[in-house]
Design a protein that fits this description.
By secondary structure, the chain is an alpha+beta fold. The protein has two domains: 262 residues, Naphthalene 1,2-dioxygenase Alpha Subunit, Chain A, domain 1 (Alpha-Beta Complex), CATH 3.90.380; 88 residues, Rieske Iron-sulfur Protein (3-layer Sandwich). Helix content is 28%, strand content 26%. It has nine helices and 19 strands. The chain has a seven-stranded antiparallel sheet, sandwiched between helices. A hairpin with a 3-residue loop joins strand 15 and strand 16. It binds FE2/S2 (inorganic) cluster and fe (ii) ion.
Length: 383
């Protein structure tokens, strides 16, 4: 994030802290009908028009740094493989054989020199072209040119790899990410290294999981023994670019910034910064590491959650560094997200079938939850 943006955001947060209020969000209490978390037809419409219509985050560039290195999709509904081909070009394909549809890359492979189908041995180049049909005499009439892998648009920007689910989809990532792309650049995500990644299934609607990140109202209660001390008198400021959001949450110490020259301010010393990159990626920025959480809808009440942590290598040297990283990952992943935020989301999902609430009521301080829902509603209406 540019320094002047950091100062501007800190100024806003300090003013809000002194007023004891969040930045205004929605100006009225909002009701969200609970069918949005249960109805199969809403779920299918979301998958089609929201998950089908936006570039999806595939992972960090370091995973595809050299020819043959690859990334696999975490989502069964869009099983892609991203690979750097022999010419150094990044490519994305559906991970599906054109013969009878077997999965080509399982994830066990270290590096790829070609795509070799495990079923009948057809071979494709890393450019997706069909090279070898085994026992080709049995396929006398086929033209190999018609059997290349289905290619998807892919882009690499600021250390992140994006895939468009629509083969015809537009991938202008600078326009898509707008100023938040610049933020990623300034945070130096391209220089980070992957620490670890976990992928697990949660028994909750994808929106319920993401919404746990979009308000600070719950922090003193749900996180009273974990995060609450860092966010006493917490206030929140936000910005939008298209459907994306940037959130900044004042930390307990924010007014201490006033004791120092503004030119020396670093936002992450006084605030936590988060990005919701629509529809399904949530970034949590820390000075030397970043947590990227992505959510993939499998069913109205089931979501694949992946959590990838990237870090700045020089900040965590040796065994001690590894230990510190592990501790941070376990704390955020296992305790804060899994045992606190997402356990609540699963409880909510389970409770929906008993029906005391026909809708969920959002107070003014939960406005970003409402804005996220409205963005989805508008998207569904427009499609
Ligand atoms: S399904 Fe791939 S070679 Fe038969
Ligand atoms: Fe939380």
């Amino acid at each position: 994030m540019r320094h002047e943006t950091q100062i501007g955001l800190l100024d806003r947060l300090m003013e809000l802290r002194q007023a004891g209020r969040n930045q205004d969000m929605l100006d009225a209490v909002m009701e969200v009908p609970v069918e949005k978390y249960t109805a199969p037809e809403i779920f299918e419409a979301e998958v089609r028009s929201i998950f089908g219509g936006f570039p999806m985050l595939a992972g960090h560039s370091s995973s595809v740094a050299e020819p043959g290195r690859y990334l696999l999709s975490d989502w069964n509904r869009l099983p892609f493989v991203v690979v750097r081909d022999k010419e150094g070009v990044l490519r994305a394909f559906l991970n599906i054989c054109r013969h009878r549809g077997a999965r080509l890359v399982s994830g066990e492979e270290d590096q790829l020199s070609a795509f070799v189908c495990p079923y009948h041995g057809w071979v494709y180049g890393l450019d997706g072209s069909l090279k070898t049909v085994t026992r080709s005499y049995a396929f006398p009439d086929i033209d190999k040119c018609n059997y290349g892998l289905l290619e998807l648009p892919v882009a690499e920007r600021h250390g992140l790899v994006w895939v468009h689910p629509d083969p015809e989809g537009a991938m202008d990532m600078d326009a898509h990410l707008g100023p938040f792309g610049q933020d990623m650049h300034h945070f130096g995500i391209e220089d980070f290294t992957r620490y670890t990644k976990t992928t697990v299934t949660k028994e909750a609607n994808w929106k319920l999981l993401i919404k746990t990140y979009l308000e600070g109202y719950h922090v003193p209660y749900l996180h009273r023994t974990t995060l609450a001390a860092n966010f006493r008198k917490g206030v929140l400021a936000h910005d939008e670019h298209g459907a994306h959001m940037r959130l900044a949450a004042a930390r307990t110490n924010i007014l201490e910034a006033m004791d120092y020259e503004r030119s020396s301010w670093n936002i992450l010393d006084y605030a936590s910064v988060y990005y919701l990159l629509f529809p399904n990626a949530f970034f949590i920025m820390h000075p030397d590491y970043v947590s990227i959480n992505t959510f993939y809808p499998e069913a109205p009440d089931r979501t694949v959650w992946s959590h990838e942590m990237l870090y700045r290598q020089e900040a965590f040297p040796g065994e001690k560094g590894e230990k510190a990283l592990r501790k941070r990952f376990e704390f955020t992943n296992d305790v804060v997200f899994d045992q606190e935020d997402f356990a609540i989301a699963e409880d909510i999902q389970r409770g929906l079938r008993f029906g005391p609430n026909k809708y969920h009521t959002l107070g003014l301080e939960e406005g970003l939850v409402g804005m996220f829902q409205q963005t989805i509603d508008h998207q569904l209406q427009a499609s």
